[in-house]
User: Fold this.
Amino acid sequence: MTTELTGKTCTPCQGGIPALTRAEAEAYLAEITGWELLEGGYKISRDYRFSDFREALSFVDRVGELAEAEGHHPDIAFGWG
Assistant:
């Protein structure tokens, strides 16, 4: 399954559409690096490392802006040290 993931949106979050099956999620996961499936294939996760707190905060701010524009609000946790 070759797709352009950057052009997709999270339609299941809009309701009325079933979540991806584990096989579908694994097929998409094969197209990206660094991510892993959790909770039976219903969640994805990735760790990022930054050189300092300011860089980490800037990244979280950018992800937040993108998430808001997409109408998709992921759980994000970050810290330093």
Remarks:
- Helices lie at 22-29, 53-70.
- Residues 1-47 form one domain.
